Amino acid sequence: MAENIPVCNNDEALCKLLGPLTELVARAGKAIMAVDRTMMAHGEKADGSAITEADTASDVIIAHGLAEIAPLIPVVSEERAHLAVRPYKESFFLVDPLDGTKEFVSGRDEFTVNIALVAHGQPVLGIIGAPALGLIWRGVVGSGAERLMVDKNGTVSATAQSITTRPYPGPAAPCVISVSRSHGDARSEAFIADRHSAIRLPLGSAIKFCRVAEGSADVYPRLSPTSEWDVAAGCAVVAAAGGLVTDAQGRQLQFGLSVEDFLVPNFIAWGDPAAACPV
Questions:
Q1: Which residues pair with 265 in a beta bridge?
Q2: Nearest to 110 by CA among 187, 185, 243, 210
Q3: CA-to-CA distance for 158 and 148, rounded, in angstroms?
Q4: Under a CB-based contact definition with an 8 Å cutoff, are residues 92 and 124 in contact?
């Protein structure tokens, strides 16, 4: 894939990207799993967030892989965001080499590798790999979403399971809400409190989006700022599975267009678009 705009405006071309990008996510996940969490080097970036040698190993693999798969499409990675030249008005990859570093450092399994392809400010393709869980979720907006198994050697199953979001429960049934295990905020807590008898599903990383996409959860609110690379792949997977991701006012999210930062002020991922409403 060497063309830029045609890749992002052609569903067939986007679907052809899924295979090589899925294999790339699996390779990055294998590299993460090869790191000994009890012995690894880790520190803090300028913004105070954690970084480990696993983040760096994954980032190197993804950078080399994307350069081979789609050399003309720019790449923005969390680990190299300082090199980004904004705004990105056309097509670019948005990458989080290791989403959920806190979970990874703590020894939990809820961390992911996220790759999104963004076109004209909107995620059109997303792949999220959870190597410790042996799962990859992926989707092309308008063409559906899938879940695949990955073995410990990073080999992706040839059989994919189609996934879809589910209808929002009626007033007599509780909804299931994906909530952050490590990053709570008052507005999100108020959103949950307004939905009486809601069932909380604590999760780390972009897995929260994936549970909405596969119909295991109904909604995922994050009503405080987070980074675009944490959100873009999940937005694409949820939308591909039939859901909708908006800001708190019900507006469409934009990616790569800000000239100042890569922050999403807030968002809500709805499994059922009919249930979406401003808060």
A1: none
A2: 210
A3: 8
A4: no
Contacts 24+ apart (CB under 8 A), 183-189: 183/222, 183/224, 183/226, 185/222, 185/223, 185/224, 187/223, 187/224, 187/248, 187/266, 188/221, 188/222, 188/223, 188/224
Q: Taking the model in full, what pTM does it have?
A: 0.94
Q: φ, ψ for residue 199 (rounded to 5)?
A: -100, 120
Asked if 119 and 93 count as a contact pair (C-beta separation under 8 A), the reply is no
CA distance 276 to 250: 7
- Show the DSSP H helices in the chain as ranges: 5-8, 11-33, 53-69, 101-105, 186-193, 207-213, 228-240
* pLDDT tens over the chain, length 279 residues: 333 333 445 678 898 999 999 999 999 999 999 999 888 776 665 565 778 999 999 999 999 999 999 999 999 999 999 999 999 999 999 999 999 998 999 999 999 999 999 999 999 999 999 999 999 999 999 999 999 999 999 999 999 999 999 999 987 789 999 999 878 799 999 999 999 889 999 999 999 999 999 999 999 999 999 999 999 999 999 999 999 999 999 999 999 998 778 999 999 999 999 999 999
**How many Cβ atoms are within 10 Å of 172's Cβ, its own excluded?**
6
User: What SS3 state is found at 212?
Assistant: helix
Calculate the CA 199 to chain-centre distance.
Answer: 22
CB within 8 A of 117, min separation 6: which ones?
A: 7, 8, 14, 17, 73, 91, 92, 93, 94, 123, 124, 125, 126, 236
CB-based contact 256:264 (threshold 8 Å): no
Which domains, from first to last, does the chain contain? 5-163 (3.30.540.10), 176-275 (3.40.190.80)
